Amino acid sequence: MTLGAFSVSLSVKDINASKVFYENLGFKVFAGDLERNYLIMKNGNTLIGLFQGMFEDNILTFNPGWDENANKLDSFTDVRAIQKHLKSKNIKFEQEADESTIGPASFVIKDPDGNAILIDQHV
């Protein structure tokens, strides 16, 4: 099972201040829309999402089907297959992907400490 590109999605109070802070750490804007209050910042293979006013807590995010440059992978584990596997392990879901669909879909689980994990497939 391959989860795809990994990033930390941070809930920020001031996206402009956070942008400057992470730029000072060597990150550059990779994607997103400042006017819509979200940016994806990149430093080497490391990705950090900055999201203002979209969710309360930080989220660990995996993108099946993408590498760290948002390029589609030739081969990957579909989000629905990952979900099915986790269900077989009795993992509790906060939000589920519709297993009758194909293409983009997502689900959310929480680890034992309550940290949200988003599996978000865009392809």
Please state roughly what percent of the residues sit in beta strands, choosing from under 5%, 5-15%, 15-25%, 25-35%, 35-45% or over 45%: 35-45%
Spans of at least 5 consecutive residues whose pLDDT stays below 50 are: none
Give the end-to-end Cα distance, rounded to a whole number of Å.
17 Å
Q: Radius of gyration, rounded?
A: 15 Å
Give the H and E element order. EHEEEEHEEE
Strand neighbour order, sheet with most strands: 2-3-4-1-5-8-7-6
Give the overall form: globular
How many β-strand runs? Answer: 8
The multimeric state of the shown protein is single chain
Tell me about the largest β-sheet: 8 strands, mixed
Structural category: alpha+beta
Round the mean pLDDT to the nearest integer and report it: 97
Number of continuous helical runs = 2
Helix content: 10-25%
Protein name: VOC family protein
Pfam family, one: Glyoxalase
Domain Glyoxalase/fosfomycin resistance/dioxygenase: 8-117
Give the SSE map:
Layout: E1 5-12, H1 15-24, E2 28-33, E3 38-43, E4 46-52, E5 59-63, H2 79-88, E6 93-95, E7 105-110, E8 116-121
Parallel strand pairs: 1-4, 5-8
Antiparallel strand pairs: 1-5, 2-3, 3-4, 6-7, 7-8
Question: How would you explain this protein's 3D organization?
Answer:
Helices cover 16% and strands 38% of the residues. With 123 residues, it is α+β, with helices and mostly antiparallel strands. It has an eight-stranded mixed beta sheet, covered by helices on one side. The longest helix has 10 residues. The radius of gyration is 15 Å and the shape is globular. The model has no long low-confidence stretch (mean pLDDT 97). It comes from Flavivirga jejuensis.
